[in-house]
Amino acid sequence: MNQALKPFALSRMLPGPLASTARIVEIDIVRGFALFGVLLVNLYNFGAESIAWDSQRDQVAFALMRVLLQSKSWILFAMLFGFGFALQLHRDEARGFPIHFIYLRRLAVLFAFGAAHALFFDGDILMLYAELGIGLFLLRRLPTKLLLIMAVGLMLVFPATRLVLDPEREEAVSVAEARTELERSRQTDVYAIGSLAEVMADNATAIPADPFEDNASPESGLAVFAMFLLGFSIGRPGAARDIPAHAPILKHLRNWGLGLGFTAMLTERVLAASSGYAVFRPQQAELGIQLVGDLTFAFGAPALALGYAATLVLVVQTPRGKALLAPLAAVGRLALTVYLSQTLIFSTLFYGVGFGQVFRLGPLAVTAWAVVIFSAQVIVCQWWSKRFCFGPAEWVWRSLTYLQWQPLHLRNDLTAQAES
Question: What average pLDDT score do residues 61-66 get?
């Protein structure tokens, strides 16, 4: 064993991870909710987003995914990253610990996880989070007002970039053409016909993540960093440390977030149906409508995500709500393990080296698969959480971050807390 990783050798010199009994259950529940959305949207990336799936049931499933979860899931995840950093910063500085090396080592390990993950799935977010986490660390001392102004500015990059680029309007693709494209992809795409080595070689081009890539997308690295700043700003006042005292603010956030968010998402759907506006697909709408749609989506999606978070936190304040949402907390505690295992599951389902269903499942089918997969993960996470402090990936992450093996079995964690 490496001497640096000798158990508890540095326990008196370095801060350790948050004890399993001291976790904030509301944060874990919101994170668990976001993980379902991340899974569902990732499943759509393997052909289900095509207009080739034009049955009424598929169209309803797609519309629900777009309105309820697309972009909102990663936005919640990114906000929680910034929010968690604010909590970590407050906790460690209150204890008098310098966090520089701990935090940077944490990001380095996260990047390593992301690079390995990206070899199997080029939609990895971990590398980007690790890279942008450095920026968050550098800006941590700025006033909250300035951070919020920066966040709004970054949110405007997407609509501004598309406005400046002013792409040529494209003719609508017919359903027949979309079906032909799907069939072509089944015969040529590396996910469909490639060996595992070929998939990994193709995905290796996504390493490292480029934070400045595709600023004409609402899911660019700059948009992610805006959510980091927003989450960090929300976490600074200490709302999570006294949730009941912040209940009135949370109620306003719930009402305004859900109201504005759903209005914005429905507006985007109306523009898409009436004028050919598209957030992610080839653009057919006129420039003015495009700008309205882009602004609506850029600010409406975060508003809805905040509405979701506030709603979940408020529901947990009641005994019935806490019991109802407890399974999501188990998922949220094992977020990294759950995220990585989702890729293992859907790559087995879709890739040619597995069951080869890529480009063969439509919106309704992948939605059903998302429910089945996530339900299984909820059951496994509940079983695991009753016995272990961390998920397997979390345990490795924390052990390497703090340069000491962390207690994995729950009884060992309780013993370590009692001795400290």
Answer: 94
Report how far residue 332's alpha carbon sits from residue 351's, in angstroms, rounded to the nearest whole number.
27
Tell me the C-alpha distance between 26 and 315, whole Å: 9
Give the up-direction half-sphere exposure of residue 34: CA atoms within 13 A in the CB hemisphere. 30
Q: CA 319 to CA 309: how far, in whole Å? A: 18
List pLDDT tens digits, range 277-300. Answer: 989 877 788 889 999 999 999 999
Q: What is the pLDDT of residues 198-209, one digit of tens each?
A: 999 999 999 999
Task: Please classify residue 4 by burial: count the beta carbons closer than 10 Å to its beta carbon, then call 0-12 exposed, 13-18 middle and 19+ buried.
Answer: exposed
Contact status, residue 124 vs residue 114, Cβ threshold 8 Å: yes
Q: Which residue has the higher pLDDT, 62 or 415?
A: 62
Beta bridge partners of 409: 388
Take residue 196 and report the two structure tokens written for it.
């595992």
Q: Could you read off the pLDDT of 16-55 as tens digits, one per residue? A: 555 555 678 999 999 999 999 999 999 999 999 999 999 9
Q: Is 358:352 a contact under the CB 8 Å cutoff?
A: yes
Cα 198 → chain centroid? 27
Would you list the DSSP string of 124-158?
--HHHHHHHHHHHHHTTTS-HHHHHHHHHHHHTHH
Query: What's the rounded Cα separation, in Å, for the pair 217 and 387?
Result: 42
**Is it the case that residue 419 has pLDDT exceeding 50?**
no
Q: Environment class of residue 96 by beta-carbon count within 10 Å: exposed (0-12), middle (13-18) or buried (19+)? A: exposed
8 A C-beta contact, residue 105 and residue 133: no
Residue 272 has pLDDT above 70, yes or no: yes
- For all residues of the chain together, what is the average pLDDT? 89
Q: What is the CA 263 to chain-centroid distance, rounded?
A: 23
CB 203 within 8 A of CB 121: yes
H helices then E strands: how many in the chain? 18, 0
Q: Measured between alpha carbons, how far is 41 from 304 in angstroms, rounded to an integer?
A: 16
Backbone angles phi, psi at 71, to 5 degrees: 75, -35
What are the backbone dihedrals phi and psi of residue 46, each rounded to the nearest 5 degrees, phi first? -105, 35
